Amino acid sequence: MERSSSVRLVRWSEGDFELLVACNSAEMTAHLGGPETHEQLVSRHRRYLGLERGQMFRIVLDGSTVGVIGYWETSWQGESTWETGWSVLPGFQGRGIAASAARLVVEEARAAGRHPRLHAFPSADHAASNGVCRKAGFTQGGEHDFEYPKGHWMRCNDWSVDLPLSAARTPSGEHPPSS
Fold first, then answer.
1. Considering Cα of 8, then 9, then 10, then 16, what sign does the dihedral take?
2. What is the rounded CA–CA span in Å between residue 94 and residue 18?
3. Could you report the per-residue pLDDT of 76-124, keeping only the tens digit for each?
4. What angle do CA 103, 106, 108 make, to 5 degrees?
5. Beta bridge partners of 74
């Protein structure tokens, strides 16, 4: 049952470190090379807080934090683009929350401008994350090998969605600042 009207995104903040800890179980990281060390989580949290191009969010459902999602700048096939990824806590999976959050993050990336596409690269054998991409309106572009994390090779699907650049762009090509 999808409950998109009650799913919202809240910008990542200093107090969100414990969410990274909660998402770091063997179950939650099985398709990502396994759990990270405490030091790696601290580093990830700092990267999320200092992200200059993109934004990380807590996924909130009816006032409860249920996961994490975001978008960030990456290089794909020799070009800069947006990438997204997410984690939804086990007790909230299977309810359409990740797909709703993914649709919201598409709108965030579209509003940020800068890139005409947003990509997601779930493991090819991760049926749930590939389903999120499909339900959120992404188009599959084939399978590719990725090294993530460093030293761990995985087969991923390249899903993407077009982000038509807004007519509200300034002559310099940049979007006006959002409030």
1. positive
2. 22
3. 999 999 999 999 999 999 999 999 999 999 999 999 999 999 999 999 9
4. 115
5. 81
Q: Give the DSSP H or E segment for 46.
A: helix 38-50
Q: What is the rounded distance in angstroms from the CA atom of residue 123 to the CA atom of residue 100?
A: 20
User: Rounded CA gap, 71 and 29, in Å?
Assistant: 18
What is the model's pTM? 0.86
**Rounded CA gap, 117 and 23, in Å?**
27
Q: What is the dihedral of CA 17, 22, 28, 32, to 10 degrees?
A: 20
**Nearest C-alpha neighbor of 91 from the set 126, 128, 66:** 66
Contacts for 159 with CB less than 8 Å, ≥ 6 apart: 119, 120, 121, 122, 130, 133, 134, 138, 139, 140, 141
Closest CA to 70 of 44, 31, 95: 44
Q: Which domains does the chain have, with CATH numbers?
A: 4-162 (3.40.630.30)
